[in-house]
Amino acid sequence: MDPRDRPSLTAALEALVLPAIDHVDLVTVRLPFVAPFGTSVHVWTAKEAMLMRLESQGVTAWSECVSDPDPFYAYETNTTARHIIRDFLLPLVEPGITLGELEGRFRHVRGHGMAKATVENACLILIANQQGVALHELLGRPAKRIPSGISIGLKETQQDLLAAVEGAVAKGYHRIKMKVKKGQDIEWVRAARTRFPDLPLMVDANGDYSLSDTDHLRRLDEFGLMMVEQPLSYSDIIEHATLQRAMKTAICLDESIHSLADAAAAISIGACRVINVKQGRVGGLLESMRIAHYAAGCGIGVWSGGMDETGIGRAVNIHLQTAEGFTLPGDTSETANYFDQDIVDQPVVLDADGFIDIPKGPGIGARVVPERVLKRTISAERIR
Length: 384
Ligand code: OSB
Ligand code: MG
Hints:
single chain, alpha/beta, 7-stranded parallel β-sheet, 4-stranded antiparallel β-sheet, 13 strands, 32% helix, globular, binds 2-succinylbenzoate, binds magnesium ion
């Protein structure tokens, strides 16, 4: 299949007509984490998220930009996203055009998928709210229970890591991902694997290695991991193909994939056997659906990643996982792993079988609590 033959699964969404939007607000909130989240690229102690609020004839919709205040995971930051949205994307949003036309206009702006996703998702959520339907219904997908997965950050000691893994196993997570970095990898994985021989386990390196580490990375093969996520550079596809040929363990690409075209290129050269789709990183829900559909058709595993989102982005990720092609548990874990109190009224929790229910109600389901947003706001700007 040529990936440029856009699958018809998004045709109905591309035909949606944008309503007139009376007001647009960008609100940046800061929510402290219950514990620092360590990765090979940075340790985050809070989620600073830029939210977009749309208002149309009394109906409101909130979306969340998945960027951070820093460019350590991706080049986009909350500040670049604000600039791109305010100065380039929002002027392209006009009543009466279709979502497909909006996507076409957005293509004139290169990159900045997180900024684009914020606007596209807000439009979709607004339309869902106006129609009184759940976001997954608007996406044309039936409700289902979403299998959970957790991303465990780097820990100070192997004991701390084992305690975190034990806690996640007790909760019933369907798969557990642990962050690794150079010098904190083989023996740490061995500790977790020895304690839980049958656990669906994977690692994420956030690009900490290079091809000269191939022999070292091959040592991961003995642990029966589901996959190793983004072992090589955030911008690489080619060398991942070389590494994949040298490793038994499946490679999953995260940072390297920004579009369906990237996914198709990676798949065509055997750079990965799994793709982590983050709706923000790839420019929104429609492109996410296209990637998942295409990859699954190629026999590539797909799951939804996360960016430590507040309840808004977390709910979007949950709705997305009803789409075709999302075959593996993602990085959607309980709210309590991140925040004491979220800005939405329904925290994400696991049921007894480790599944997540789609929040009920129109749009994202979860209801944004304005007082909680206000309490966490560090800046706000009305841009229309
Ligand atoms: O690489 O998937 C990643 C969080 C921030 C930035 C990058 C990543 C992550 C996670 C956490 O792994 C996912 C989540 O729990 O939301
Ligand atoms: Mg990752």
